[in-house]
Structures are given as structure tokens and as C-alpha cells.
């Protein structure tokens, strides 16, 4: 049985599924496109400022950091894992950079250190999950508190300001001669990179195989532990990169930054079609759902909807994203 399972996994990793035109147009991503159009039309009807091209591009400033963290989270959830510590990793990385800058280090030194700390945080999560065999939920719930606590220990309640202009340009400015934010271009580059990694490489096919049957993957010779550690390190890296962009956007660093962002990130991935049970998900789905959530929040902001109500809406969207596909699946089986 183990040998047969191993052969099935090897076939899954090596063979690419044939293209189906009907299957293509029945994909969940088309539903997300339809929702983006519908929500966009609603927003345009309630605010004359929504369809302004400059405003549409400026809207992306509010969710680029979340979108960057959602890219590796897609891989993590496909392997039936979770990372609740992404926002805390962002805070810890940002605090590391701010602390070094506060004590006279050049901002680029602090940025490199922040990236290193983020990757180390992801590596620690991955090792606890693979070597100590702790559940991802338990590990990242613990580091959710640990990393945020370390950020407070480094900076306390006092924000760090005064970053050089060239650094803040990354988070605040646009591509010369266009309304396109520099941070949006950064997101597009990484979205393309993660999309190719997940859907066009053996590494990505192994990620899907692990989510479908981790036990069989081990029999097939796939280094499951190494792949898991790497995707958690990707998560730490992207959280640290998000920390740099956020610090540049606000021109300062506080230890309470990104509070609650983990909910948005997980919602974006699940709404994008990823299965929390593993084995299913697409990068384009995550990207589309990130923009969908951003459009929803932007529309509520234009109508001055309180932040607490926006959180309720985000929680409702997460429940919708989990409930509807399951109900549809049961209906189709019947």
C-alpha cells in the first residue's frame, strides 16, 4: 500500500494535468473576478471618487503589505499548515530595523538585519513543526505572542521616526510619470515569482503533493521537512519585506503595527480557493481575493465605516470563504 501511494505521489509530482476549456471557465477565480466587478460597481454607485484612476492605484497602498504576506501563506495552507505569526514577524522585523537605526546604524544595515530576523523567525516556526512535530497552529500561535513581545521589548511604546527620504520613497512614491505606486510594482514582481514557483516547478508540485498526502510523499522520497521549513522561511522573508515597505510608507515604526493583519492574510488565501485541509489553492486566486478584500475595505472607508465594522465584515468574508465551497462540494456530491 505504501509503495502504491509513493508511486501515486511521484506521478502527481511529475505529470502535469491536461488543459480543459470547460474546467478553466468553471474555476473559482472567475467567481472572484465577478465579485470584484460587482463590488466595484457598488462602490462606484455610492462614491463618485471610486473610479478615479489615481484613487484606484492609491487604494493599493492599504493592502500591499498584506498581499505580500499572503503569497507564501498560500503555500503554507496548501500543505495543510498555518502561520498565525506573520503580523508579529512583521512587527519584530520592523522593530529590529528601527532599533539599529535609532542607535546610529545606516538604514540599509537595519533593513538587512530585519530581513534576516524575519527569515530566522520563519525558520524557527518550520523547525518546531518538522523536528519537534508540533502542530502548526500551536507553534505559530506561540510565536504570534513571542515575536510581538520581542518587538515591544526592543522599542517599547516609543515610535522611531526620521528615516531618510530615499527609503520612504519605496513606500510612498510612484513610478516616475505614472500613477503606479512603487510598492505595487514590488508586489507584482513577487506575485509573478511565487506564481511560477508554485505552478511551474517541481518544488510547487511537491507542495501540492504534501497537502494531498504527506505520508505518501515521505515514502516517495520527497524531503517533506525541508520543503516545509523553506515555505515558512519564505513567509518570514515576506513578512520582513512587508515591514520595510510599511515603515517606508508611514515614515516611522511602532511595535503595534500590523495588528490583526494575520486575519486578512488568511482570509485572502482561503477566499482565493485554498483548502485549509491542504492540497488545493492557486496563487492567482490569492492575488484576486487580496484585491477583492482591498476593494471592499476601500469602499467602506469612502463611506466612513468604522474600523470595528470593517473587522466584522472581514470575519464574515472568512466564514463565507470556508462555508460556501464546502456546501457547494456537498451539493455536487449529492
Automatic annotation (TrEMBL):
Keywords annotated in UniProt: Cell inner membrane, Cell membrane, Membrane, Transmembrane, Transmembrane helix, Transport
UniProt GO MF annotations: transmembrane transporter activity
Pfam families reported in the protein's UniProt record: BPD_transp_2 (PF02653)
Keyword Disulfide bond assigned: no
Entry's transmembrane regions: 30-54, 75-101, 107-125, 137-160, 180-198, 231-251, 257-274, 281-300, 312-332
Membrane topology: Multi-pass membrane protein
A GO term from the CC aspect: plasma membrane
Localization per Swiss-Prot or TrEMBL: Cell membrane
Record carries keyword Lipoprotein: no
Principal subcellular localisation of the protein: membrane
Official protein name in the record: Autoinducer 2 import system permease protein LsrD
Origin species: Candidatus Moduliflexus flocculans
Amino acid at each position: 500500500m505504501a509503495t502504491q501511494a509513493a508511486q501515486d505521489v511521484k506521478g502527481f509530482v511529475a505529470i502535469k494535468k491536461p488543459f480543459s476549456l470547460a474546467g478553466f471557465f468553471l474555476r473559482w477565480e472567475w467567481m472572484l473576478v465577478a465579485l470584484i466587478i460587482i463590488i466595484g460597481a457598488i462602490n462606484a454607485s455610492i462614491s463618485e471618487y471610486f473610479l478615479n484612476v489615481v484613487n484606484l492605484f492609491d487604494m493599493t497602498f492599504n493592502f500591499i503589505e498584506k498581499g505580500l504576506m499572503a503569497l507564501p501563506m498560500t503555500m503554507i495552507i496548501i500543505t495543510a499548515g498555518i502561520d498565525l505569526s506573520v503580523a508579529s514577524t512583521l512587527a519584530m522585523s520592523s522593530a529590529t530595523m528601527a532599533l539599529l537605526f535609532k542607535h546610529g546604524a545606516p538604514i540599509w544595515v537595519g533593513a538587512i538585519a530585519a530581513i534576516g530576523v524575519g527569515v530566522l523567525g520563519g525558520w524557527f516556526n518550520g523547525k518546531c513543526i518538522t523536528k519537534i512535530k508540533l502542530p502548526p497552529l500551536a507553534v505559530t500561535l506561540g510565536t504570534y505572542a513571542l515575536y510581538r513581545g520581542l518587538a515591544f521589548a526592543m522599542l517599547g511604546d516609543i515610535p522611531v521616526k526620521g528615516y531618510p527620504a530615499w527609503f520612504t520613497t519605496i513606500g510612498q512614491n510612484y513610478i516616475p510619470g505614472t500613477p503606479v505606486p512603487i510598492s505595487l510594482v514590488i508586489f507584482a514582481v513577487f506575485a509573478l515569482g511565487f506564481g511560477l514557483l508554485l505552478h511551474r516547478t517541481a518544488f510547487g508540485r511537491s507542495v501540492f503533493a504534501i497537502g494531498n498526502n504527506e505520508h505518501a510523499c515521505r515514502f516517495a522520497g520527497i524531503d517533506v521537512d525541508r520543503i516545509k521549513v523553506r515555505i515558512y522561511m519564505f513567509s518570514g522573508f515576506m513578512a520582513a519585506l512587508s515591514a520595510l515597505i510599511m515603515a517606508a510608507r508611514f515614515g516611522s515604526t511602532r511595535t503595534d503595527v500590523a495588528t490583526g493583519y494575520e486575519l486578512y492574510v488568511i482570509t485572502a488565501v482561503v477566499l482565493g480557493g485554498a483548502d485549509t485541509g491542504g492540497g488545493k489553492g492557486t496563487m492567482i486566486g490569492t492575488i484576486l481575493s487580496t484585491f477583492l478584500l482591498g476593494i471592499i475595505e476601500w469602499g467602506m472607508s469612502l463611506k466612513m465605516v468604522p474600523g470595528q465594522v470593517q473587522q466584522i465584515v472581514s470575519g464574515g468574508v472568512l466564514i463565507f470563504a470556508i462555508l460556501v465551497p464546502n456546501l457547494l462540494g456537498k451539493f455536487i456530491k449529492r
